[in-house]
Recover the amino acids of this structure.
């Protein structure tokens, strides 16, 4: 009977092979979970990098295509104050775009898109400004099309307006616009 009890006690314990096998399976599962976690982090990083292209890009495209399509002409300036000070318009890359619109009565009105860091609590971004039709004085940077771009460049290439918007992660969106009049 004592021999049977010893054998029974011995059979309740795990062998070294069984413990090694269980540890190997556990470590394999842990490695798979770590790989899945790293993959999810990589996808999240890619999503965050591309979020400017998927969220701000379509909204900017919609606005720019509608506004540039209805403009009669445009001029480029280095700064918003350059327009007010009647400085010669730029022919190269600039951060300010002044758009000219024809009113139903035959008169013209102007608006400005500028990549700037306006005074006050507003962050750097692409802003819309009204221009007074009588004095051609600039209004405040009223609203931002987007505050996420790192840079916005307006340029003229063979008479065609190009808008290059650089996102916060270096991604670039380029729009082609209307011909300069």
């Amino acid at each position: 009977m004592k021999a049977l009890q010893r054998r029974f006690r011995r059979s309740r314990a795990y062998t070294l092979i069984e413990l090694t096998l269980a540890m190997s399976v556990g470590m394999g599962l842990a490695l798979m979970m770590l790989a899945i976690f790293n993959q999810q982090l990589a996808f999240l990083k890619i999503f965050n990098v591309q979020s400017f292209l998927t969220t701000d890009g379509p909204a900017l495209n919609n606005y720019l295509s509608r506004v540039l399509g209805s403009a009669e002409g445009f001029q480029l300036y280095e700064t918003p104050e350059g327009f007010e000070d009647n400085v010669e318009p730029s022919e190269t890359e600039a951060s300010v775009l002044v758009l000219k619109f024809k009113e139903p009565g035959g008169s013209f009105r102007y608006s400005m898109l500028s990549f700037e860091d306006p005074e006050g609590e507003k962050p750097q971004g692409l802003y819309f400004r009204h221009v007074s039709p009588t004095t051609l004085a600039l209004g405040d940077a009223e609203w931002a099309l987007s505050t996420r771009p790192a840079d916005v460049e307006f340029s003229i290439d063979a008479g065609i307006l190009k808008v290059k918007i650089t996102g916060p992660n270096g991604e670039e969106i380029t729009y082609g616009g209307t011909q300069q009049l």
Remarks:
- The CA atoms of residues 10 and 97 lie 87 Å apart.
- The mean pLDDT is 84.
